[in-house]
Amino acid sequence: MMGSAHADDSAVILLYHHVSDSTPASTSISPEQFKTHMTYLAENFHVMPLPDVVAALQQKKSLPPKTVAITFDDGYRNILENGHPILQSLSLPYTVFVNPDEIGRLSNQLTWDDVKAMHDDGVDFANHTLDHIHMLNRLPDESKAAWLERVWGNVEEAEQKLESHIGESLKYLAYPFGEYNEVLAEKLASNGYVGFGQHSGGVSSYSDFTALPRFPAAGRFANMEPIKVKMNSLGMPVTASGVDDPERTNPIIDETITLKIDGNDVRLSQAACYFQNEKLPIEAGPGTLSYTLDTVLPTGRSRINCTAPSNSQNRRYYWFSQPFFVSRQDGTYPD
After folding, report:
1. Is 331 among the domain residues?
2. Which residue, 190, 205, 233, sits at the end of a domain?
3. C-alpha dihedral (248, 253, 259, 265), degrees to nearest 10
């Protein structure tokens, strides 16, 4: 399969948080709109359990056309009350990334009995850290080694608690706020974990399995027409991103970054890259797409999205997102 991009080497992972009319709008989708999303998926896509999608891509095995996986971050009770019945009625599998130290302790969270009952119904549960920390936050005078030991201890303790309650350890980590860096990604890989971000894009066998992209599908991203385009997107076959570390110590970025792209199905002549809704200057060559960014990155999270049409799949777009993370001066990150 390597050597060219294929629609059967691609999937989309969707990200939700709340299914509710009464929770923060930015991370919520109404039960009615969620039912619209799920019905559309059930009628037009092949929805698979996340572990099956990840395993197929890691092993470079073909996936059914238009494969999608559904995920939630944070173990909110409204997932069970409002989302689960819809998903069960349509026989759609899904995964919830939870914070074990918040399960059963906060009134808006699932209980461990809920988690076990949902797991018995086929729902997968995975790690979102013990308590939803900003993983890149540094304590005063904390060395990089001490920081890594502290945050990795949090991940491993959360994994142990999950396994003790449900008897399963997927070794998946969804980074809270989608924040990660090169050192953390290497730690995940060396310990056999798969990481999940909150930047956009399809996934493929070419993807970085320490930070798989997921499309946010709630809040301002819940509108049906744009989400249809994202559901139909393809994982861009990027072999080199031109960025070693998404965490930037210097927020000033004035460089040209080049993506190396495999295969001949990505129509680079019609590629486009965007930063904060502004189109960037780009250059496309054989198997390369370069974008130039001349700006001061904002504190917190930002991203560049690049897309290009598929030559073989009508009205489908390859999609790649490059996140950037910039801390405050004190080494912490905003929510």
Report:
1. no
2. 233
3. 110
In a domain, 253, yes or no: yes
CB 268 within 8 A of CB 39: no
Query: Which CATH number characterizes residue 289's domain?
Result: 2.60.40.10
- pTM tops 0.85, yes or no: yes
Distance CA 96, CA 193 (A): 16
Q: How far apart are CA 252 and CA 274, in angstroms?
A: 17
Contact 127, 135 (CB under 8 A): no
pLDDT class for 152, splitting at 50, 70, 90?
Answer: very high
Let me know whether 66 and 184 are in one domain. Answer: yes
Per the prediction, the chain carries an average pLDDT of 96
Final residue before a domain boundary, out of 207, 233, 259: 233
Same domain, 204 and 315: no
Residue 187 per-residue DSSP state: H
Whether the Cβ atoms of residue 48 and residue 96 lie closer than 8 Å to each other: no
Domain count, the chain: 2
Pairing of strands 317-326, 300-309: antiparallel
Q: Are strands 95-98 and 124-127 parallel, antiparallel or unpaired?
A: parallel
pLDDT tens digits, one per residue of 34-73: 999 999 999 999 999 999 999 999 999 999 999 999 999 9
Q: Is the dihedral of CA 305, 266, 68, 190 positive or negative?
A: negative
Range of the domain at 177: 7-233
Burial 60-98 (b: 16+ CB within 10 A, else e): eeebeebbbbbbbbbbbbbbbebbbebbeeeebbbbbbb
